[in-house]
Amino acid sequence: MNVIFDVLHLYYLPQYLPVLKTLQAASADVHFVFYKQGDEPLNQVCREVIEQEKLTATWVDDWEEALAFYLSQKADWLIFGNKVANLDELHAVSKTVMMQHGIGPKRCYYQNSESPTTVRFIEGQHRLKRLLDLYPDGSFIDTGYAKLDPLFQQLENSMTLESLGLDPSKKTILYAPTFYPSSIECFSKKFAKEFADFNIILKPHFFSLTKKKYHKQRKLLENWATHDNVYLATVSDYNLIPFMAISDLMLSDASSAIFEFAALGKPVVWCDFYKLRWSYRGIFKYRFDRRIDEDIQYFNQVAYRAADYSELVVTVRTAVDAGVKAGTADVIEKLAGSIDGHCSNRIVEYLLANTKSGSDS
């Protein structure tokens, strides 16, 4: 079986890697396609990751070049982390998969299936039902969320608090905001000082660290990182999973990281306050509402909510003392599916059972 993973962005990899390892165990031929970035340091980070993970990779400039490569390779399966164009052409030579790179509350989670890949692997019966209601002719398989597999396989984590320069005697807060809508710019400049009795790991979204438009976010992050109790993840720290493993509590906003961390049976604080562009405020608030799906209601069921930064100090300490919220496991099963460390096995079993070459596949 020949499989190609499309790596439009580096942050797709944590969802792909557990599946890669299972494919390798099944003796599949696996290849990765990376897209050249306009910023050479980003390309260098990708090269380092390719070497570190021992990936067989091809670089392309854009989608047109990737499409030409896929058409020439005629792989059994092409795996994408988001929706893509030209599916009719691709389906003439290969089968296609969508493995969404996140399980958060953004509406695009559901809208992405407007372009029907051969199959989409999804997480849990709630999402399966909603997708089938929207796209009754679609092919959706509930496998669970492969990104979390390593956390349930008792794998050794080489990352430690000491390796990050943090104090192992302190509780550790993991702040993992998304890039938009984000809570970062609503945080106090004194955030690190106000939580000096905690370690703080800052793991912002890839775009917060790389896109010029988010320079104000970077300025705050870098200011907090000057404190001894803070570690700021770099672009090369692309995988949230190792940070989750060593943290006691997470802060996040409109990110699927809330569901991911809650799945570990650890407390989460939902920062339900955001810095919105003017075009998403006031009479334009409908644009924000249109971006966020109704699934955000489940944040209240798995996370302690802070409506603004002033509530955060008390809410964090409440969450640390109380632990994970009651009923979290049921919600996580609903939104992330089976959390058992075997999601990638279910994915690969399906690929193997449904592999045929050509347009008749």
UniProtKB/TrEMBL annotation:
SUPFAM superfamilies: UDP-Glycosyltransferase/glycogen phosphorylase
Pfam families tied to this protein: Glyphos_transf
Gene3D superfamilies: 3.40.50.12580
InterPro entries for this protein: Glycerophosphate_synth, TagF_C, Teichoic_Acid_Biosynth
PANTHER family found in the cross-reference section: TEICHOIC ACID GLYCEROL-PHOSPHATE PRIMASE (PTHR37316), TEICHOIC ACID GLYCEROL-PHOSPHATE TRANSFERASE (PTHR37316:SF3)
The protein, known as: CDP-glycerol glycerophosphotransferase family protein
Organism: Psychrosphaera algicola
